[in-house]
Amino acid sequence: MENWHLRFGVTSNCNFRCKYCNSHNTNSEDMSDKDIKEILEAAISNGVKRVHWTGGEPLFKRNICDYMKYAKELGYEEQSMTTNGFFLEKMVESLKDSGLSRINVSLDTMDREKFKNIVGIDSLDRVISGIEKMLETSDCLIKINMVVMKDNLNEVTDFIKYAIKQNEKYKKERIIVRFLQFFPCNPNQLEKDGQKFWVNEYITETNILDEVKKLGDIKEISRTNVSGDNPSMRYYRVGDKATIGILAMFSWKYPCGSCHKLRISPLGEATICLNDKKTVKITGTSLEEKKKIIKEMMERRDTIIEKNTTRKHFRNNLGEFRFGKNGKEANIEEFYEMLRKGKGRECSI
User: Fold this and answer.
1) pLDDT band of 90, cuts 50, 70, 90
2) pTM (two decimals)
3) I need a labelling partner for 307 at 20 to 30 A (CA). Which of 18, 23, 208, 334 fits?
4) How far apart are CA 289 and CA 296, in angstroms?
């Protein structure tokens, strides 16, 4: 059996209002405690041993550590999380005790004013403090996810230097920085202002790599050398001092990564792919029904890939799986054409 993991979006609510994400949907109704625990039971009964908690902002979910402890009791061998870091400093000990193995912190800038402009809250110091307290009190590997835009491109080397400094301090690779190309994947890019913001801030994979190379030679390494499972990510060693990742889906034309992720949306939908048109409402069902739904999805996964070898990691209704349908759709090609018109026909995609 492939090494499946459960990617569990427990809430679509978030305390940040990031410009490139969804700044409006902050009051959606979350699934019940009963459904969350039964989904954990149903997944592990089907052989899933890893869970990655996401949102929205998972630490915005009041009972998140209770769910993590329950997962630990059930026998989950690894628990990871993606967070904006706002609540991290106060929750480090609880997360550690709940079984956290690894954490991804979304952080796009180390400039206070830029941070406030991007997320809408003046809390950069709080996020940095949370990262550093996690370093001090746990052995968790921290992956910093930086969405790279024109406005923060010059900070790429600063982030790598920060990782090197912390890794040298702890004499161990504690931080990996992952640079995420700003690409259309959220509802805001379906709005006129969001489209304009994206076109104006878009940068290429080459732009990112050129910044990284300012710190020395780079060498691509296998993702199997890095803890965690994102088959779409490309990893590099920068000299002999840091590991970085790059995700440039727009430049790569959104290739399917052939992952084995069982995805649960905050709205209670289950799927094995963001681009899978067949999602199943898993909440409100019995435990036995949940087990059956998950089993059937896992069995169907390979059939889907065999039938469509050119499938893309793209959903026309952007952000639908996290935030629900918003009534608008956009094909991939519309965004490539939008960029060409906005940047000029010679634009490198």
Assistant:
1) very high
2) 0.95
3) 334
4) 11
Indicate whether 25 pLDDT > 90: no
Strand-pair partners of 243: 237
Beta bridge partners of 264: 8, 270
Q: What is the pLDDT of residues 294-330, one digit of tens each?
A: 999 999 887 877 777 778 888 898 988 888 888 889 9
φ/ψ of 91, rounded to 5, equals -115, 5
Distance, in Å, from the CA atom of 139 to the CA atom of 123, rounded to the nearest integer, reads 25
- For residue 281 the two structure tokens come to 């409402």
Q: Given the structure tokens 């995609």, which residue do they identify? A: 349
Q: How far is residue 103's CA from residue 105's CA, in Å, rounded to a whole number?
A: 6
Looking at residue 228, its pLDDT comes to: 85
| Four-residue CA torsion sign, 253, 259, 265, 271 | positive
Please give the average per-residue pLDDT across 238-260, as a whole number: 92
Q: How far apart are CA 219 and CA 242, in angstroms?
A: 11
**Which among 322, 186, 326, 185 is positioned nearest to 266, based on CA atoms?**
322
Q: What is the pLDDT of residue 169?
A: 97
**Percentages of the chain per state (helix, strand, coil), in multiples of 5:** 40, 20, 40
DSSP 69: H
Q: What is d(CA 20, CA 113) in angstroms, rounded to the nearest whole number?
A: 17
Tokens 């019995």 appear where? 286
Backbone angles phi, psi at 117, to 5 degrees: -65, -35
For residue 110, give every residue at least 6 positions away whose Cβ sits within 8 Å of its Cβ, in sequence order, or none: 124, 128, 155, 158, 159, 162
Domain ranges of the chain: 5-343
pLDDT at residue number 345: 46
Peptide bond into 56 cis (omega under 30): yes
- DSSP label of 15: S
The CA distance from 48 to 348, in Å, is 41
**How many C-beta neighbours within 10 Å does residue 191 have?**
14
Q: Give me the CATH topology for the region 5-343.
A: TIM Barrel (3.20.20)
